[in-house]
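User: Continuing from earlier, I have the next pair ready.

Assistant: Great, send them over.

User: Here they are, in order.

Assistant: Folding the first of the pair now:
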Amino acid sequence: MRFFTGMHDLHHVGKVAAAFVSVNRLRRRARKPFIAGDWIMDSGAFTEISQHGDYRHPAEDYAAQIRKWAGNGRLLAAVAQDFMCEAWILQKVGRTVEQHQRMTVERFDQLAACDVAGVYLMPVLQGFAPADYVRHIAMYGDRLPRGAWVGVGSVCKRNGDPRAIEEVLLAIKRARPDLRLHGFGLKTTALQSSLVVELLETADSMAWSFAARRQGRDPNCPHEAIAWTRNIGAGAPQLELIGAL
């Protein structure tokens, strides 16, 4: 599993080996290129849906941001604009899991029709129960070619229950073992699961900043990000996955 460190200060993005940067941060702060190595652009879905119930900007605007930053560092992927399916989100916006799944696919189609300068557009599987994610695979149909690199949404709030995350990832892998999965917002507890680590191709997190703030240190310090990421790499269990799939 390759880890992408969530970075909110663009001056520090190039200080980590692989970064995860929200488009909302780019919109607010970036006027000129910044130093970066490998990175992924996030769609800012959590902020948009949790605070506004929908995306404030059309798909074409996000596509324009992807084009703008396509040559900055090595932009490996831009995450498609998905709709989360946690119960509190659905209650707040008055929609169902299936509605958010359909909206996620529709938004993906809108983005896929735009010019994104050749940057890989990462589809996102949404749901809450394991069966939801399998249904969402079917909804995507041939939009998910063999070996596609795909995000797994609505798992970041389940970090305290690695078994729930394991069940979601296993359900996806049983349906489509070829998919390369990305876990959004995973913290140390989830990454201590050997099964989670084995099932994921990549993951990201901003947990280093929250940990630093909680412990009275600088939540913006790049050294905190580097140390936390290094500890994740050193502590991630490297166990063989036998009989899980």
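And the other member of the pair:
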Amino acid sequence: MEKRRHIAYAGVSVAMVLLTAACGSGEDNTAGSANVQPAGGSQTVGAGASASPGAGAGAAAGDIGAGAGDEATRTGPAKRLTVEKNAELGSFVTDSEGWTLYRFDEDTPKPAKSACNDDCATKWPAVPADDATATAGIDSGALGSVTRSDGSKQLTLAGWPVYRFAGDTEPGDTKGQGVGGTWNALAPDGKPAGKAAATDDSLQLMVRNDAELGKVIVDGDGMTVYRFDKDSAWPMKTGCLGACLDTWKPVKAVDTTKVAGVDAAKVTSFKRPDGTRQAAFDCWLLYTFTGDEKPGDINGQGVKGTWFAVTDKGKKAGR
């Protein structure tokens, strides 16, 4: 009995060692920290919203203060957008009444979509798209709208859906900043306000809520990324060489501080035979499909029964 117990412990130890190996490869697959600070894009009007709020939205459910203020000004149009400043956030956007406006990391700007619905939308009211104008410091061309799951039109700034926070009890409050690690005040260019955002350029990997496939990973341009059944995750190897690369383009290695909606610790890179670095998620190499013409296309899904969009968990979409 004692001997079997030692053998069992030894088996667990071996398994733990295997699990901590970097995708079973000798290549440098070390991911960076998950200090996610996403940035907005230039898209202003997108397709309809879908999906229920994610983990970030759930985290946002806590600590809503009493005294919610004038409900009409909290749920009505933004009217004239204004740029305010403070020591903590730098420049950020408010509505005409001075209420701080926010963005959600689990939304997407290309195409614009809102992932905050139901209970989430009670705590983070969507700002209506009508009657919005930009003041100095905000590009009026960056204002747009997105159709939400209930059919209403929501204001967007640089493609990012715009919200207020029910926990702000008076104009000028910024209590929604950093809630759940996914909510931030809006900077005038659509990026998250705050000093950490000052050096942020753009997202390189993020998640899009697809009506057919659910949450799938897209690149910084909003193009769907895919994985190939003939690749290997353990050890990491590529099965897409030669003519295959004319149709399926390897996603370049990404900065793990510029991803949103996925576990940055699972984002790694792989050295291809030609010496270039390819991005991988959960040890699966990532590609885009030349048959996709615009952000949101999923024409590569199921091609030859071996190519699949990648879910936010690294699995094959639609399976």
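Worth noting for the second one:
Residues 205-309 form one domain. The longest helix spans residues 2-20.
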